[in-house]
Design brief:
The chain is α+β, with helices and mostly antiparallel strands. The chain contains 28 helices and 17 strands. The two termini are 35 Å apart.
């Protein structure tokens, strides 16, 4: 796992050493073990390496036999040994045992066709010295990040946006992307919060030949298009593929562990790791001081049941406050999900013992685990109610429910459920999962800022929804979640926060072999018994405690609504003083004041929206205000 950077100057001029140094320093946390560099007239590529495989010979950049190609690469290819054997049979000569060299020779042999052969996570760049072209690619789901920027003078790339700040222009906000952020809670690809900096979308590659730029998709997910199979057959196949995926992703020449929350996904990974590892399996779990959000007892139960070497990390208020400000610079994007704060503490603690962790990210998206999927099935019946009941009676009752700080409370879910009832279900899903709606954003933003927004918030969702070929609503929404929420929220934080601790996070439930099989299964199998993640529960029933199998889904949900009222109350008061807000000229202070007053007085739960506002303001202060 690494941080990669690079730049092409169209005029062939020398790239200043101070530019190279600044870009490299911005990535040092991603790879503290080795810094490598390739330079030639008009081009440089760099790498900060976190050594995981072939610790001695695997340093980058790596060249092919005749040194006509050079690669910088971030990721892990779990089937690289199999591909390497095929390439050796074709006459390729290898100098190292690293998967980086396998990727380079596979590209040399198969061109862009190599991408569909890889089982793993990756972002890489190959420079062709003979033809003077640059090839970049990102894995199917966007597990590994890749940012790009281009102007009339040149092109540059980096694993994180901060590596590109100031390369061609000072940092400036992209108001369309930021306006979307306030609804999504994250910034979906291909956008970033910085004007002129984009993400290469998942499942895409691009080429730069001279000044000509092209970008293409090589993979797109499909859901629910396979035949009906007996449930017992599906369970057996999923267990086989899950165990194989974890076995592949145990590949490492350094110590390895497991993040364990006590939920189904991480417990499944821990179970398979225990079965397939030849060494003791170390597990790491968080313990919250707030007992209503603490699941450490469940994680402890699973660890004891499986015989893991278990470590608990107490997430104190001191760690919480420190994490808030650390995370701002780490993420370099505003981010509405407060789970990144405890995740940072967990990652730092795990890094003291291991260099790689297996995680359960992606299980909900693959196995239909979100309660919203079941809610969409129910919503189809709800929409058939008489209009007066649908639009007046039920909303009047639900909106009178008392505000609760309990995670995923009935009040929270009921108020979410009735939102967007008149929209297509694909859009209603993003309303349920989101933060500020358009009316709320119009109240929040000053007109001169809102006037800079160039496209509707959900325009890209609507465009993709029009192209979907899945027939049932759950499969369609799972497709959308894979393209938006999974990459923009889950995988974004998984990469960024763990790499800030120089820790590699792997996601075996998104292994391509397992994912391809489960994606094809009908929803009736994935949600057998009408239950989210019903198939996974059937698979795990014989092996995990009953209390773990049947416990209500919580997710990794810290008490951010309570934090807004409590531990961070002074931060809000300081950041959103009237004179500060008015001088900045972005928000209407009266609206912020109203949101805070209603939330603190428990007249409404604005916790998610206020958290999104807080992280935006910290991001703006850190990356934009200092440039003004």
């Amino acid at each position: 796992m690494c941080g990669i950077i690079g730049m092409v100057q169209y005029d062939g001029g020398t790239i200043p050493p101070d530019v190279i140094g600044a870009m490299s320093r911005a990535m040092i946390h991603r790879g503290p073990d080795h810094c490598g560099l390739y330079t030639a007239p008009g081009i440089f590529m760099g790498i900060n390496r976190l050594a995981i495989v072939d610790l001695v010979r695997g340093n980058q950049p790596i060249f092919n036999e005749d040194r006509s190609l050079v690669i910088v690469y971030n990721g892990e290819i779990y089937n690289h040994r199999e591909i390497r054997e095929q390439l050796i049979a074709k006459g390729h000569i290898f100098q190292t045992g690293s998967d980086t060299e396998t990727v380079l020779h596979a590209f040399e042999e198969f061109g862009e066709g190599c991408l569909t052969r890889f089982n793993g996570m990756f972002a890489f760049a190959v420079w062709d010295m003979v033809n003077k072209n640059l090839f970049l690619a990102r894995d199917r789901l966007g597990i590994k990040p890749l940012y790009l920027t281009k102007t009339g003078d040149g092109f540059a790339f980096a694993s994180e946006a901060k590596g590109l700040l100031g390369v061609f222009a000072p940092a400036a906000p992209d108001w369309t992307a930021i306006y979307r952020y306030f609804s999504f809670g994250y910034i979906p690809s291909p956008h970033s919060p910085f004007a002129g900096i984009d993400k290469l979308p998942p499942g895409h590659f691009c080429r730069l030949q001279g000044r000509e730029w092209s970008q293409d998709r090589y993979w797109s997910p499909e859901y629910g298009k396979g035949p009906q199979v007996p449930l017992s057959n599906a369970c057996a196949k999923v267990e086989e593929l899950m165990e194989h995926a974890v076995e592949l992703e145990l590949m490492s020449d350094v110590p390895l562990g497991v993040f364990l929350s006590g939920g189904l996904d991480s417990s499944a990974v821990a179970l398979c790791a225990k079965r397939r590892s030849s060494q003791e399996v170390h597990s790491f779990a968080l313990r919250f001081e707030d007992k209503t959000h603490d699941e450490s007892a469940d994680a402890r139960l699973v660890a004891e049941h499986l015989g893991l070497v278990h470590t608990e990390v107490l997430f104190t208020k001191d760690l919480l406050r420190q994490a808030l400000f650390d995370v701002t610079r780490i993420l370099d994007e505003p981010f509405g999900d407060s789970t990144v704060l405890p995740l940072l503490a967990l990652s730092r603690a795990a890094r003291e013992q291991v260099k790689v962790v297996l995680t359960g990210w992606g299980g909900d998206e693959i196995f239909a685990g979100y309660p919203t999927y079941r809610a969409h099935q129910m919503a189809a019946h709800y929409r058939k109610l008489p209009r007066i009941i649908l639009s007046e009676l039920i909303p009047a009752i639900v909106n009178r429910l008392p505000v609760s700080d309990k995670y995923m409370s009935f009040e929270f879910k009921a108020k979410r459920f009735i939102r967007g009832a008149g929209l297509p279900q694909e859009l209603q899903h993003f309303i349920w999962m989101g933060y500020f709606d358009d009316e709320a954003k119009q109240r929040l933003f000053r007109p001169e800022i809102a006037g800079k927004v160039k496209e509707a918030t959900f325009a890209e969702v609507e465009h993709l929804a029009e192209t979907l070929t899945e027939q049932d609503v759950v499969s369609r929404i799972m497709h959308l979640d894979a393209c938006f929420f999974l990459e923009g929220n889950g995988l974004f934080q998984a990469d960024r926060i763990t790499m800030a601790a120089s820790l590699e996070a792997r996601v075996p439930l998104l292994n391509i072999d397992l994912m391809a099989y489960v994606n094809a299964l009908p929803v009736s199998i994935k949600m057998c018994g009408g239950t989210p993640k019903g198939l996974m529960k059937k698979v795990l029933e014989p092996y995990l405690p009953e209390s773990i199998i049947n416990k209500p889904k919580k997710g990794f949900g810290p008490p951010s609504a309570a934090w807004v009222r409590g531990v961070f109350s002074d931060v809000f008061d300081e950041l959103f003083k009237r004179e500060r807000v008015e001088a900045q000229g972005i928000f209407n202070h009266a609206e912020i004041e109203r949101l805070l007053a209603e939330h603190r007085g428990r007249r409404a739960d604005h916790g998610r929206n206020l958290w999104a506002l807080l992280t935006f303001q910290l991001w703006y202060n850190t990356f934009i205000a200092e440039e003004l």
